Amino acid sequence: SPRNVAVLRQRFEGVAKEDVLQTDLDAQREELRERRVDAVVCLDVLEHIEDDLSLLKSFAGILPSGGSLFVKVPAHQWLYGSVDIASDHLRRYSRGDLIARVEEAGFKVRAARYMNLAGVGPYLLKSRVLRRGSAFSSSFSERQLRWIKRSIGAFRVIDRVVGWVGPGGGPPAGQSVVLLAERP
Fold it and tell me: Is the dihedral of CA 141, 80, 45, 85 positive or negative?
């Protein structure tokens, strides 16, 4: 969104090697190649895109060999519920599904793990257990968002403590999947 782009531009102001762009990958593919983009960060986007594979292939098309892709998406289709519907999510991903999708797009996956194990219970309650379609269950209030922001540190500790259990160095489940890949 333009608001997010403005925040990122402000954060990276004065950093010589960083440039924040809002772009159309199809229309500006050549311009992006010429800029020698070396990394794509895709945070909570793929779940909104009908043809997620085409988007991932577009990323591969602009990155040079050795370029990095970092992806974060919502995890576990069994968590899909009213919050996802209200957020226009088409799907949630398992770790394996995301790896397969990214590899199919031409990337080599370096790491993929679940994160935010502690958020699974509250999200399940809010999105699946509480009555679907109610105002309470379809989005987060300002108060709830403040609580979530204050709790992020604790969520990270929980992920680290149980991280040895799961594949890929993360917890065995989580509210999100994060993945790092490289274009060969």
Answer: negative
Please tell me the distance from the alpha carbon of residue 111 to that of residue 129, in angstroms, as a whole number. Answer: 32
Name the pTM for this structure: 0.76
CA distances from 53 to 32, 56, 59, 124, 169 (A): 19, 5, 10, 27, 25
Q: What are the residues facing 181 on neighbouring strands?
A: 69, 109
Pair 76, 101: CB distance under 8 Å: no
Report the DSSP pairing between strands 39-43 and 68-74.
parallel
Q: What is residue 141's predicted lDDT score, i.e. its pLDDT?
A: 67
Is 172 within 8 Å of 75 (Cβ atoms)? no
State how far the Cα of 85 lies from the Cα of 99, in Å rounded to an integer.
24
How does DSSP classify residue 49?
Answer: -
Please, what's the largest Cα pairwise distance for the chain?
50
| 49-71 pLDDT per residue, tens | 999 999 999 999 999 999 999 99
Report whether 113 contacts 178 (CB < 8 A).
Answer: yes
Indicate if the pLDDT at residue 148 is higher than 80. Answer: no
Contact 75, 103 (CB under 8 A): no
Give the model's confidence band at 164: pLDDT under 50 very low, under 70 low, under 90 confident, else very high.
very low
